[in-house]
Amino acid sequence: MATMTAQILIGTGHSNDGGLIFVKQKRLSLSENSRISWLFKPDGAKDLIVWVATVENCLEDAFLMIAILIQRDVDLIELAKSFYPTIETERHITLYEAFSLEQRMQLYAKCRQITTFEKMIVTVFRQSHLLSRRQLSVIESYRMDIEVCSVCYSRLFSMWTNNTYIGRKYSVVNLNKIQ
Question: Kind of pairing, strands 49-52 and 92-94?
């Protein structure tokens, strides 16, 4: 069974109160098991859209998915379609198979140029790939309003040891130092 280890909320930031305005809010979820995948369910759709992410650029894959499927950036869609014509209509894409490394690097570079992203709130759970691979530092290459939330308190029961573990972590972090 896959585990959800992160989510990204996308929407309009509130100019006075922070957070996101609830209307038309979208969400991506990071599913981790044998393959890391970003899941998105468009409004009114029956099925999820699944992008099997790359290990080394997992967060950038999410930003790419957001730019193409939610923000609908015309220039980025045009470039992506030149490599993979059905990018907007496919329900399941494995990014390693859909794009070569060079093509992905071109797409990430184009995505970093977008200045019209909506606000994002990235919530990263314990043991997420986004923490273990220093993925979050890539945020500095993008120009969007963004908040990153990580676990500052947890109380978890382990059925293996029959113990409850409590973890506390209250600090502001430098994205470049996150492991």
Answer: parallel
